[in-house]
Write a structure and sequence with these properties.
21% of the residues lie in helices and 29% in strands. The protein is an alpha+beta fold.
Length: 561
């Protein structure tokens, strides 16, 4: 039997009250509590008690049911406490923009919430946290505030660098719209009337008008009806309006970037993320490097999206919490700190750091006749003629054009683990475009699975001082128009991955400026998980000759030579 405490009122230090539900087993003895906080609504999370877990592409998969398996939490001897953040659901207060609640940092509210939970008669004063995605990011905000009774956290699928969550390589991603507005398989934020735009609260009407005009002058934005609507009617889409009007990285995103706050965390942290969610894998690895206390990292198997309601990873989560919250020595801390599921082989590997195996960077060169080889093209541009593709806007065509290169079948198992880069020598006939690169593992049967992706808006091609061979970084702090017809080198970051190409398999790479709306990978994602297409007609010319060494730079496992 589950005891339910409905509509608890949790006081914040400024007098605002947050709403919460608590679930525990029958009996009066106090237990450790697992806290879940989000704007998605505690009533939606209660569906975990009545709805069987759904997987994509089920139309009943709802990306916002993320607080965990209530019945399992109770069965394992914990109290499950699910709260609505300020300005959402049944909570009081205002919510302003992203990760900012009425001028109060979300971490501050999480601190007060956790300390209140610890003082309740059904809690023994020991608290952890639970939930994926937004719930996972909330755990980092909370832990960075160091509430005394928060003893450990388990973060799955969190979003950390918020600019990279919304602009992949400078290319706008639509999933935050789904999370806010409830489009494409997400119920969205459970906001009442108490939500405001940070842009509208911060800047003058004239400054906002100028920013809106600037964004509408971008042909990519102007060709997308929803963005035109958002920019003209921001009061109905306050958070999405903030994202659309801030297309460059900087203070707007950095002031509440969880990675910037994570150096203040000293409690044990378990980080879990699945392959196929490149930007999130990248952020998880960056966060892992910042953490100073006891920590674990698990990069799980493809496909990328867990079930909704979320019930995955609970076995590992309870091992973690049984050790840190109940004091049960179950051996979890005797295991290596990093655990990775290697795609292709479908085997787990573990080690002391990421990548878990020694690697060396090697180049695979784009060649004529759609070949990808370890030796560069010997012919010059006069003989190894450039190739290209013309992409008309998706307003007038349905087809996404692309170029493809592939290796010969590998003769032996070949492993690639880490972060990679694509160096493209290209000229375009406009002042901007997208470069979208996908790398696949293709079996002899033709069946293929995505290995990794890379995105770069051409006007964001600048690199910064963090860049090393095979590991590029772009600051994304300014947009520099491309001079049409000029050949530039574009270095695209390939998100982290771990893959073993079996004998007979090929490595295939695709280049395009718009991604397909449906393919083997996209069908596993929510419907809104695609990127803003190029809104103008663009001709792309790719040079891959003895002078222009267009190539992939990949981290091959040393044993794969």
């Amino acid at each position: 039997m589950i005891v339910v405490h409905k509509d608890l009122r949790v006081p914040m230090r400024d007098g605002v009250h947050l709403a919460a539900d608590a679930y525990h087993a029958k009996g009066d003895e106090p237990r450790p509590a697992l806290v879940a906080l989000s704007p998605y609504g505690k009533e939606l999370q209660a569906l975990a008690l009545t709805m069987p877990p759904q997987r994509r592409p089920s139309p009943l998969w709802d990306g916002c049911i993320e607080a965990g398996d209530i019945a399992r939490v109770v069965k394992e001897g914990y109290v499950h406490v699910i709260g609505d953040v300020r300005g959402s659901g049944a909570s009081e207060g205002e919510h302003i923009g992203n990760y900012n609640a009425g001028g109060v940092p979300l971490g501050q509210d999480a601190y007060d919430f956790i300390e209140w939970v610890a003082a309740q008669p059904w809690c023994n004063g020991v608290v952890g946290m639970i939930g994926i995605s937004y719930f996972g990011s909330m755990q980092i905000f909370a832990a960075a505030e160091r509430p005394p009774h928060l003893k450990a956290i388990f973060v799955s699928g969190g979003h950390f660098d918020f600019y990279e969550t919304t602009y992949h390589g400078g290319v706008m991603w639509f999933m935050p719209r789904a999370a806010r507005e409830g489009r494409g398989g997400d119920s969205g934020w459970a906001f009442t009337h108490r939500h405001k735009s940070r842009m509208l609260e911060t800047y003058s009407e004239e400054a906002v008008r100028q920013r809106v005009a600037e964004r509408l002058a971008d042909p990519d934005v102007a060709a997308w009806p929803n963005l035109v609507h958002v920019l003209n009617y921001p009061i109905h889409h306050e958070s999405w309006f903030d994202i659309v009007t801030n297309h460059l990285d900087g203070e707007w995103y950095e002031e509440q970037n969880p990675i910037n706050l994570a150096s203040n965390i000293d409690i044990p942290v378990y980080l879990q993320i699945n392959q196929g969610r490149g930007w999130t894998v990248d952020g998880t690895l960056e966060l892992f490097d910042v953490l100073k206390g006891p920590k674990k990292l698990e990069i799980g198997p493809y496909p990328p999206m867990q079930t909704r309601p979320w019930v995955d990873e609970h076995d590992t989560m309870f091992r973690w919490y049984d050790y840190w919250l109940k004091g049960i020595d179950n051996g979890i801390m005797d295991e290596p700190p990093v655990k990775v599921h290697v795609e292709g082989s479908r085997q787990w590997m573990s080690g002391e750091h990421w990548p878990v195996t020694p690697v060396e960077y090697r180049s695979l060169y784009l060649r004529t006749r759609s070949k990808l080889a370890f030796e560069p093209e010997p012919l010059d541009a006069e003989h190894a003629h450039a190739e290209g593709f013309y992409q008309a806007p998706l307003t007038v065509v349905d087809k996404v054009e692309k170029l493809t290169w592939s290796t010969e079948p590998f003769q032996s198992a070949t492993s690639v683990h880490g972060v990679g880069a694509a160096h493209l020598y290209a000229a375009i006939d406009q002042d901007d475009t997208n470069f979208i690169l996908r790398m696949w593992d293709e079996a002899p049967t033709g069946k293929r699975q995505l290995v990794t992706t890379g995105f770069l808006k051409a006007s964001h091609r600048e690199l910064d001082e963090r860049t090393t061979e095979g590991n590029p970084y772009h600051p994304h702090t300014r947009s520099v128009p491309v001079e049409p017809g000029v050949i530039n080198e574009y270095v695209i970051r390939l998100y982290p991955f771990a893959n073993e190409f079996k004998p007979g398999h090929k490595l295939v790479v695709e280049l395009m400026c718009n991604e397909p709306l449906v393919d083997e990978h996209n069908s596993l994602l929510p419907p809104d998980a695609f990127h803003l297409p190029v809104g103008r007609a663009v001709s792309h010319t790719i040079y891959r000759d003895a002078t222009h060494l267009s190539r992939l730079v990949l981290p091959f496992a040393s044993s794969s030579r």
